[in-house]
Amino acid sequence: MALLLEEDSPLPEGWDPARVAIYRNAYRARLVDALRETYPRTAQWVGDEAFRRAAAHHLIASPPDSWTLDEAGRGFADTLAALFRKDPEVTELAWLEWAMHECFVSADATPLDAAGFAEATAPYTDDDWARLRLHFLPGTQCTALAHRIHALWPLLSGDSPDETARESDYRSEQPLACIVWRQALKPVFLPVTAAEGDTLSLLLAGASYGEACAMLVDRLGEDTAVTEAGAMLGRWLHEGMISAVDVVP
């Protein structure tokens, strides 16, 4: 492995440098291919050569240390953020691809529907509701976005990208967020407002529903916050994002 990873690693006596170079190049090419399979849309958006250079940079800086190539692309969005500072949509697109990738292999869980939620919370007091904790399906993630990646996504599903597409075409006038979760065996995503994204992120970090509502009140005002909090909860239940509820001790 040292011979494959390090250019200046000394060769055992009698080994042919040209032959070792063949294996080294083949090993690296397979790793780049693994990243390209994980990030096909990102590769289309930046172009094959730029993607290959970025992938090689990532693999040198962060060599794989897992038993599965599924993990080879971990942290690639951070690498792209450093390499494509003037093209932030590249990082956002890569984040979405990795989140979908992780979500696909996340643990199974049964979503809680509206009827199940009503039954589970029927005995709750007002204090219980303030300390209500929502558990989301494994793999559920959320991040803030500055671009309408949901509009760019379908354009990159073919064999070649739309050559007329530009970053400015997908820059959002308002801050956005994106939620990723899994429906049955299919990872899906949903663009939402920044307020909803911040609320969900707070809940995913372990905050109670009451704490999330308090954040919304500070941000939107009481009347709007109450309406929005109820709409968000209804949407998450309808989309099958919530797996269970309990009360924070």
Task: Produce the secondary structure layout.
Blueprint: H1 2-5, H2 17-38, H3 40-46, H4 48-61, H5 76-83, H6 88-104, H7 114-121, H8 126-130, E1 132-136, E2 141-147, H9 149-152, E3 171-183, E4 186-193, H10 194-204, H11 209-220, H12 222-238, E5 242-247
Antiparallel strand pairs: 1-5, 2-3, 3-4
Helix pairs in contact: 2-4, 3-4, 3-6, 4-5, 5-6, 10-11, 11-12
Describe this structure in words.
By secondary structure, the protein is α+β, with helices and mostly antiparallel strands. The chain has 2 domains: 1-86, no CATH class; 107-249, no CATH class. Helix content is 52%, strand content 16%. The protein contains 12 helices and 5 strands. Helix 3 (40-46) packs antiparallel against helix 6 (88-104). The longest helix is centred in the first third of the chain and has 22 residues, at 17-38.
Output the keywords.
two-stranded antiparallel ribbon; 12 helices; alpha+beta
Order of strands, widest sheet: 2-3-4
Beta content: 15-25%
Mean pLDDT across all amino acids: 92
Terminal-residue CA separation: 50 Å
- Overall SS class: alpha+beta
For this structure, the quaternary state is: single chain
> What are the segments in which pLDDT stays under 50 over at least 5 consecutive residues?
none
How do the SSEs run, as a string of H and E? HHHHHHHHEEHEEHHHE
Helix content: 40-55%
Number of domains: 2
Tell how many strands the DSSP assignment holds: 5
- Envelope shape: elongated
Work out the radius of gyration: 22 Å
Tally of helical segments: 12
Biggest beta-sheet profile: 3 strands, antiparallel
